[in-house]
Amino acid sequence: MSWEHVPGYVSEKEAHGEQTVVVEPGQLVEAALHLRDEEGFSFLSDISATDYLGWGQKGVAGYIGTATGRDLNRPAAQGFQILPELKPKRFSMSYHLLALRPGAPRLRLQVWVEDGEPVPSVVEVWPTADWHEREAYDLMGIRIEGHPNLARILMDDDWEGHPLRKDYPIGGEPVRFSSEE
Amino acid sequence: MAILERPAIYEGTRIPSPIPTVLQVPDELREGGDILQVNFGPNHPSTHGVLRLIVDLNGEEVVGLEAVIGYLHTGFEKNMEQKTWWKAITYPERIDYVAFQNNEYVFVAAIEKLLGLDIPPKAVWMRTLLNELNRLHSHLVWLGTSGLELGAISMFWYAFREREQILDLFELVTGYRMHTRYFQAGGLAEDVPRGFYPECRKFVEWMPKAIDDYEALLSRNEIWLERTKGIGLLSAEDAIALGQSGPVLRASGVDWDLRKAEPYLAYDQVDFDVPVYPNGDVYDRYKVHIDEMRQSVRIVAQCLDVLEGLEGEPWIVDDRKIVLPPREELHTSMESLIHHFKIVTEGYRVPEGEVYVAIEAPRGEMGCYVVSDGGPRPWRVKFRGTSFVALEATATCMSNALVADLIAIVGSLDTVMGEVDR
């Protein structure tokens, strides 16, 4: 099935039996409304933000300090190892949709943004997006626009940085030991 | 999906606006100045962990509510990015520590989907069996603690009596009572030990009687009925809009179960019913849990029938690039030793791609989104925490509730804070 009629359509892909349709961030809400009302995707399962900083390269936080690291370009690296397919922008937001009808069709609605680029909120379309979007903002620093209550949700209110980003070091947060004053 | 044909639970929607998860005090009440704001939690015996609810009270009535979470955030998803696929399997179990086996399965299933592995029948049936035992375990913990919160203390002892038997079964199979790490990508870590089937049979025969006991304790108990019937209403439309799944959705009259709608493992080969109740209140959520336990026992019995005929069959795929070689080969085969060493130290590589796998965990749709860059570590792992989503419905369920109802409602949504905060 083709998804070209979805507002803001950019591209589509089928892999591992899963459908992905990429839309323009600016038209996300129209696309969401279309999919909910016309295609029956009334159930939003999940929103996942992913940071692709350093995708396919070495020296990314998260690989530093681990045993092997990962450098595909190293002379001794396996020659047949291919570099992963490059991504259009740094962050992806994946909206996992489900239609509650026989066959349980699922669709991944995806938008791509650079750091600081806004993503419109879909809380008006699926109220369950409220906390999912707050989590994407809190842990990944995605700028959600039009969210009624965009506050940190899992980290402390005064936390600095967004921990799930690839440039956020692991083990870097200050810890006060109980013997200290 | 079929929404049961009957009068709507309530007209229109009760989802608060503009913030769907925050119940705001109406202006006319706020001006009266008689509102008391109370912090319920984060350390309170009735919050199922470290949940903090900021509650606005008008006398005994709950007029405002906001859930504050994050007290148990431990960065599971970030940690999993640092571990090889092989080692990351230990993490999901600890996310929802009550439904450990289901969570372990959803992550392993995501790896297998990327790898394109076909799992031997014995592993498929054993996974089904353990997932159902785990569902029983999870429902028992829910029943025990919810009963306890509403004053039914004996319920707790009964539920934990059978929970103990289930944990003994897990210990028999896997060596651990919880967080078993028994599922490997490709199958099971070890063969099913001798003596498991007869022990499990004894449990299957015993359990329906135990469930009768629970119902005798609660289903006609005047206090229990008073405190659960008509409390915490959630209509089918609101439940879907709020992303509710599992027993909460089925208690609102929506016939939806991923084991039927999108069968995985052996669920299309076993015979079971999906209990659906129409009233959307705390009592119906209790009924769904009880009925699901009976169905789980049925599924376990059918799995045992099949498994007993699979004696001597392989329990894991024979793919030496992904699966550890048999232990005894390490003494005689150089290649086995090398592969064992490589898998343990460096891990296996998983082809590039992204997948979303969802299963029907005890609390509803447990999803796992995984991105691989083709390397030995996950690039990104994201879990759809069922409890995380369930808590979003607290504000909607809380209309016209009293303080005492608040305990019953939060309990009925069946949340595990480890999964909420991850």
Task: Record keyword descriptors for this entry.
heterodimer, A: 181 residues, alpha/beta, 5-stranded mixed β-sheet, 7 strands, globular, B: 422 residues, alpha+beta, Cytochrome-c3 Hydrogenase, chain B, 4-stranded antiparallel β-sheet, 3-stranded antiparallel β-sheet, 9 strands
Looking at CATH, which topology of the domain at 83-318 and 348-382 in chain B would you report? Cytochrome-c3 Hydrogenase, chain B
Helicity level of chain B: 40-55%
The tally of beta strands of chain A, per DSSP, is 7
| Main pleated sheet of chain A | 5 strands, mixed
CATH fourth-tier homologous superfamily of the domain at 83-318 and 348-382 in chain B:
Cytochrome-c3 Hydrogenase, chain B
Main-sheet strand order of chain B equals: 1-4-3-2
What is the helix tally of chain B?
A: 18
Broad structural category of chain B: alpha+beta
Description of the molecule:
- The complex is a heterodimer of chains A (about 180) and B (about 425).
- Chain A is an alpha/beta fold.
- In chain A, the strands form two sheets. Chain A has a five-stranded mixed β-sheet with strand order 1-2-5-4-3. In chain A, strands 6-7 form a two-stranded parallel ribbon.
- Chain A has helices spanning about 30-35, 130-140, and strands at about 10-15, 20-25, 45-50, 90-100, 105-115, 120, 145.
- Chain A starts with 8 loop residues before the first strand and ends in a 36-residue tail after the last strand.
- Chain A is globular.
- Chain B is α+β, with helices and mostly antiparallel strands and about 425 residues long.
- Chain B has a domain at about 85-320 and about 350-380: Cytochrome-c3 Hydrogenase, chain B, CATH 1.10.645.
- At the A-B interface, strand 3, strand 4 and helix 2 of A face helix 2, strand 7, strand 8, strand 9 and helix 15 of B.
